[in-house]
Design brief:
By secondary structure, this protein is mainly beta. It has no helices and 11 strands. It folds into 2 domains: about 60 residues, no CATH class; about 60 residues, no CATH class.
Length: about 130
Amino acid sequence: MANEWKWKAGPWMVVGFTAAAAQNKGTPCYMTSNVATVCADGGTVDLVAAEDTTSGSICQYIMPFCDVFEVKVATGTDLAEGAKVFCAATNTVDAGSASQVDSGTCINYDPASGGCALIAVVSRMLTPTIYS
């Protein structure tokens, strides 16, 4: 498996946004200045590329709403089911740290699976903001 996030289950809500740069199908992204940008280590996951994208073009993205993805786990990471997962380098996930933003929840991980886990993801774009 390459390091793409493979959609496995969920609502599959596909939306169109402008890509900040060329991205491969299955790349986790976040929104900044109204464009989809590849997630950095510890970054938020708002979208996952549903297709290969072209820089500056409107492209198709999955906006996760409890969608399940098969992802590659970073080398040396041991995830517990129910644990929060975080974006790591090169589209992998790890156990992260308290200063990072979680990307989802591990729902299945078997170290003998070749380093793959199933994670449930909810886009931060679907989380309501409460103002006081």
